[in-house]
Amino acid sequence: MKIGIIGLGFVGLSFAAVLGSKGFSVIGLDTDRKKIEKINSKKSPFFEPKLESFLKNALSKSLEITLDANKVVKNCDFIFLAVGTPKLKSGHINLSMLKNASKDIGVSLRNSSKKPIIVVKSTVVPGTTINVIKPIIEKSSGKKNGNGFNIITNPEFLKEGSAIDDTLNPHLVVIGGLSKKPINSLRNFYRKLYGPKIKIMTTNPQTAEMIKNANNSFLATKISFINQISLLCQSIPGTNVDEVANCIGIDPRIGRSFLNAGPGFGGSCLPKDLETMIQFSSKIGANPLLLKAVQQTNDLQIKQIIHLLEKNLGNVRNKRITVLGLSFKENSSDIRGSRSIELIKILLKKKSKITVHDPKAMKNTESIFKNKITYANSLLESLDDCQCTIIMTPWKIYTKLKNSNFKNMKRKLIIDARRILSRKNLSVEYFALGLGAN
Ligand code: UGA
Q1: Which helix (H) or strand (E) holds 338?
Q2: Beta bridge pairs of residue 340
Q3: Helix axis angle, 339-349 relative to 289-313, nearest 10°?
Q4: CA distances (Å), 230 to each of 72, 241, 289, 304, 419, in order?
């Protein structure tokens, strides 16, 4: 059995590295030559814990990387499509990479005797596999689904920052297919990979697509819910949103995960998938009232931070503000959809001077802001001379900050969007989202 994986981003590369390290025969394909070169030199093209060591292991065993779609189609029994579906300015998702990859598969399929199972892992709105991808492959291959190939939707639930662990140990596999045989083949593949205990749900492609969208929309809803409570806590002296989350999270009907209040959810998935669901709902004539509220609540969190800042500093023009944490979450260098980037953009419009620090995301941030902001060489240096430090991403290194580290701040004012410092141990002006006044 040979596995092809098209698109070597977080999903595709993690999957390729895990499969290869377990000895599955894998061909990974990407159209980005530089990325291919980097991977072939056993380096991960982006920071993701554990990925590089799994990649090294996989490359030394049974993972091959290529630019050639023909090679994938001619050799593989399963072809996983894991290309990105980023957001367009209109709010819709950009299917161009998925359409191109599908066409390339179809063209190669035309002269191939293989009848692969083509598995869509990329996140798409309900109906895309059947109404968009299947017709492209059928047209470019001259073959029919069910005859020359079989298409299946198989959404992915991994999180950046724990992509390898999530790939090794997913909570669920969802298989959405049009007929039993290919569904069973993919189920058998996953049984071989994960053993008998893994939960596998089978359904049709459009329901599988809806499951993925509903999953991310619900996670976004949970975060906005706790952020709404966080806002209330801030106005009630002595109240602490984490204690609320810890207790309501014990109720098994609620659960503790995704109840960490903060500056709002960012990244390349939750904000995009929420927006896509809103657009999709409107398109099919439904009014996505709740989802819109989730989005508005998310936008409010950054405004809250600005409000706290201006309440304390007054006009922020020409005042130096330090932003700690640029990646959209800890253990990642990814700044796509990062709330920190959004915050910096607003502060720059208000003519603040910005210094930034992040353990992994400085280079990505520099590609956006160039020389408009100051990039500190170290955490301590980033605090020098600023009039406020805003903690945005809960990197472990920031949890260790103590009074003496703030001694060179011009004004010792801290806004902690993630409540990672302990107010009682600090002798600075300390404000946090989700904490009522002392
Ligand atoms: C999200 C989903 O969690 C994955 O299941 C899904 O597979 C993925 O999108 C995707 O569709 O590809 P990801 O965006 O990597 O994963 O990261 P999350 O851990 O979901 O974090 C998203 C944002 O929410 C981050 O900015 C994070 O800081 C924030 N967040 C998360 C909170 O503010 N509070 C929480 O309690 C949890």
Answers
A1: none
A2: none
A3: 50
A4: 50, 5, 21, 11, 11
The helix (run of H) or strand (run of E) holding residue 432 is strand 429-432
pLDDT for the residue numbered 421:
97
Q: Strand 413-416 to strand 150-153: parallel, antiparallel, or no bridges (unpaired)? A: unpaired
> Which tens digit of pLDDT belongs to each residue from 385-412?
999 999 999 999 999 999 999 999 999 9
In short, whether 214's Cβ falls inside 6 Å of ligand 1 is no
Percentage, residues of the chain above pLDDT 70: 100
Is residue 299's pLDDT more than 90?
A: yes
Residue 359: phi and psi, rounded to 5, are -65, -25
Residue 90 confidence (pLDDT): 83
Phi, psi of 317 (to 5 degrees): -55, 130
Q: How many CB atoms lie within 10 A of CB 142?
A: 12
* Cα 159 to averaged position of ligand 1 atoms, centre (Å): 6
Instruction: Using alpha carbons, list the distances in angstroms from residue 61 to 20, 26, 236.
Output: 7, 10, 58
Output the CA 438–ligand 1 centroid distance in Å: 31
The pLDDT score that the predictor gives to residue 427 is: 94
SS3 264: coil
Residue 7 DSSP one-character state:
-
How many angstroms is it from 265 CA to the middle of ligand 1? 7
pTM value?
0.96
Cα–Cα distance between 302 and 308 in angstroms, integer? Answer: 10
Residue with tokens 């554990």: 50
- The tokens for 113 are 């005797």
* CA angle at 161 for the pair 18 and 264, rounded to the nearest 5°: 145
Let me know: does 94 contact 19? Beta carbons within 8 Å.
no
Pocket test for ligand 1, best of 269, 276, 342, 392 (most atoms within 8 A of CB): 269
163-to-16, 34, 119, 156, 381 alpha-carbon distances in Å: 12, 22, 19, 11, 32
- The residues, any chain, with a CB within 8 Å of residue 426's CB and separated by 6 or more, are 402, 403, 414
Sheet holding 117-120, edge to edge: 63-66, 25-29, 2-6, 78-81, 117-120, 150-153, 173-177, 200-203
- Percent of the chain predicted with pLDDT > 90: 97
Q: Is 312 helix (H, G, I), strand (E, B) or coil?
A: helix
How many of the other CB atoms lie within 10 Å of CB of 231?
17
